[in-house]
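G., the chain you wanted modeled:
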Amino acid sequence: MPFILSGLHASILTLLPSTNQNIANFVGKVTHSSDTTDWILDSGASEHLTCDALAVSDTKIPSHYLPVKLPNGTSVPVHSVGQIQLSNMTLNHVLYIPSFKCNLLSISRLTKALQCSVTFFPSFCVLQDLKSKKLIGMGELRDGLYYFHGLHLPFVAAASLPSSSNLWHERLGHISFDRLSLIPELSSVSFKNSNNCSDVCHRAKQTRNVFPLSNNKSDFPFDMVHCDI
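Predicted structure as tokens:
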């Protein structure tokens, strides 16, 4: 006997998107401060989408991507597929759609590609690596939407930092100067005549003999008081 869907079930199925259909969801207001360089973190988008042709590199003409379906029911064609560079991360499979009006970062694709978690807070969100828990990206809340903000932490070589031997001695846990001189990255730092140990070094490296075993026992509290002088 064939299975017949009721009118309610059939209506529900018509609302469900096809698994092969690319979907873009955007519900928000675009202010004057928003431009084509802003990227919105969207948990409702199944693909990364951009309207900025200059942001996409290594583009290819899509052969299997279907038109992207918008929330209003219309569909728009995909012009090309490429990759984008955001801060210190590279994202692939980004759809370039000239007729789109904003840039969307798909949360599902972002977490899978970068193996990260996205945690949303009332005024910002953070992207963290799953293994190391290292912060790899952030987002700020503007007009009800979370806009991506990369981390701009340029690498600073040790040679460009202040070449004070005492400074590196303190930063690395008061390590001896003989050991400091063995670090290749500190080859430009002079450790000659660096014997001015701080007060912390003397206190941390002092040693003392253990107390000898005592056979003296008291019968009442406070009969004998031990003091370490």
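Confidence is low (pLDDT under 50) at residues 1-13, 15-20, 154-162.

Shout if anything looks off.
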